[in-house]
Design brief:
- By secondary structure, the chain is α+β, with helices and mostly antiparallel strands.
- About 35% of the residues lie in helices and about 15% in strands.
- α2 (about 75-85) runs parallel beside α4 (about 135-145) and α3 (about 100-105) packs across α5.
- It has six helices and seven strands, in the order αβββαβαβαββαα.
- It starts with a helix and ends in an 8-residue tail after the last helix.
- The chain is globular, with a radius of gyration of 17 Å.
- The protein has a single domain (about 5-210), classed as L-fuculose-1-phosphate Aldolase.
- It has helices spanning about 5-20, 75-85, 100-105, 135-145, 165-190, 200-210, and strands at about 30-35, 40, 60, 90-95, 130, 150-155, 160-165.
Length: about 220
């Protein structure tokens, strides 16, 4: 069933408020989007999540255009659009500056296969893309390369972007990755982490294809 713009906008607001209350997006530093028609709906720039109404959520076309008489979209709209174009399976995206994922991103570290749940992001690593200033085409190009074969990436000196086939699942993946980032940080305090092999991770990725409720 096709969801209305108002329903999806309210879902975005609900998710954004939840992420803030979970301390995954300090102040209103993150952003949330979903695919809609030939583009996406995304949180506006610079407004507290608790103050948002459905009409504040911005539609951005695939060509990067929006109604300039209304709200301006998040300054990060370019990398959201780039991720959607790069990965047809992604229907919703969450960007956060959560503590541990951002710590690793600032340290120049990807999340390697230290735990099998790394595969939840679609591959054997959660990659780190190079730094570029927020809101830039350069950053969106880096994100597009990562999302060609992943559902998430860390952005150097910035934060996390995670996508899934529904917004609820994108929020869930964001929480999973933040937990993995904290665990990886903790393991690193004990010495060099022991990593799963490529074959072991491929087995996990294959098993994930039929794990859980695939139609939810």
């Amino acid at each position: 069933m096709t969801r209305s713009k108002e329903d999806l906008s309210n879902e975005i607001i609900k998710a954004a408020i939840y992420l803030k209350r979970q301390r995954l997006t300090p102040a209103h530093t993150g952003n949330v989007s979903v695919r809609f028609e030939d583009g996406m709906l995304i949180t506006p720039t610079g407004l507290p999540y608790e103050s948002l109404a459905a009409q504040d959520i911005v539609f951005v076309s695939q060509e990067g255009e929006w109604d300039e008489a209304g709200r301006a979209p998040s300054s990060e709209w370019q990398f959201h659009l780039a991720a959607y174009i790069a990965n047809a399976g992604v229907q919703a995206l969450v960007h956060t500056h959560s503590n541990y994922a951002t710590t690793l991103a600032c340290a120049g570290k990807q999340i390697p296969p230290f735990h099998y749940m790394v595969a939840a992001a679609g591959g054997d690593t959660i990659p780190l893309v190079p730094y570029a200033i927020f809101g830039s085409k350069e950053l969106s190009d880096h994100v597009a390369k990562a999302f060609a074969n992943r559902k998430a990436c860390l952005m150097a000196h910035h934060g996390l972007l995670a996508g899934e086939r529904t917004l609820d699942k994108a929020v869930e993946l964001t929480e999973i990755i933040e937990d993995l980032a904290q665990q990886y940080w903790a393991v690193c305090q004990l010495g060099e982490p022991t990593l799963l092999t490529n074959q072991q991770m491929q087995e996990v990725l294959e098993k994930f294809k039929t794990y859980g409720q695939q139609d939810v």
